[in-house]
């Protein structure tokens, strides 16, 4: 992607968002306790204590995934970024959803510091939301998924290549939504919520 693309207000927002998402997604993984606590180290980010993975592969997976979204967030194509936990039958158990809304017509200067200040509150709220989340079974796996508003053109860039279309199992009923935090300031709106299978969701029969 052209560096000059990032000199627009949308580019500036996208850059801040991507950095934030990397930290926030790592916080979600830490929160769910699927790796030993020793796999993370404490860091400060936006003056909040956060966790960073010690494991290079884990770091790299999260980093590469969100950085690859930068051009698409910049163009307003990304609707949601989710961290999804699956049981060993590959059925989703819980989704942490970041819903993005970047005003594409906004053309004033972006106050990066204000934006970061608002995003910071998500990082503060996340750890205290742990009781709202599901206890995960032992053999679960997780992944990061992005939901696009529309499909990017085929040849956009190398970044697009790592985002492969997917066809994961879905819930049959609309999920239960548990809001965690939201902001709706100009030019960025962001919501973080949990999705759980609805109580009427047919259970996966083991037999
Ligand atoms: C987006 O930004 C433009 C320009 O600042 C503003 O006029 C418009 O109301 C904003 N749109 C929304 C949905 O807030």
TrEMBL record:
Keyword Disulfide bond: yes or no? no
> GO terms for biological process?
DNA damage response
Q: Which UniProt keywords apply?
A: DNA damage, Membrane, Nucleus, Transmembrane, Transmembrane helix
The record's listing under InterPro entries reads: HORMA_dom (IPR003511), HORMA_dom_sf (IPR036570), Mad2-like (IPR045091)
GO cellular component labels: nucleus; zeta DNA polymerase complex
The subcellular location is: Nucleus
Q: What is its main location?
A: nucleus
User: A Pfam family matched by this chain, by name?
Assistant: HORMA
UniProt keyword rRNA-binding present: no
Q: Which residues form the HORMA domain?
A: 11-194
TM segments?
13-35
- Coiled-coil ranges per the record? none
This protein is called: DNA polymerase zeta processivity subunit isoform X1
- Originating organism: Sesamum indicum
């Amino acid at each position: 992607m052209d560096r000059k693309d990032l000199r627009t207000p949308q580019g500036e927002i996208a850059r801040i968002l991507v950095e934030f998402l990397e930290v926030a997604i790592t916080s979600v993984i830490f929160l769910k306790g699927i790796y030993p606590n020793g796999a993370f180290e404490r860091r400060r980010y936006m003056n909040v204590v956060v966790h960073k993975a010690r494991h290079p592969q884990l770091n790299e997976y999260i980093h590469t995934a969100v950085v690859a979204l930068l051009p698409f967030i910049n163009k307003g194509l990304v609707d949601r970024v989710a961290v999804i936990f699956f049981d060993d039958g590959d059925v989703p158990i819980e989704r942490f959803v970041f819903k993005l809304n970047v005003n594409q017509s906004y053309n004033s200067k972006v106050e990066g510091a204000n934006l970061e200040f608002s995003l910071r509150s998500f990082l503060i709220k996340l750890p205290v939301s742990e009781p709202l989340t599901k206890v995960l079974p032992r053999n679960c796996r997780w992944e990061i998924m992005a939901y696009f508003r529309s499909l990017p053109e085929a040849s956009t860039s190398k970044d697009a290549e790592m985002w492969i279309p997917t066809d994961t199992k879905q819930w049959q009923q609309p999920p239960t939504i548990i809001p965690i935090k939201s902001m709706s300031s100009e030019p960025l709106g962001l919501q973080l919520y949990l999705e759980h299978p609805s109580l009427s969701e047919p259970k996966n029969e083991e037999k």
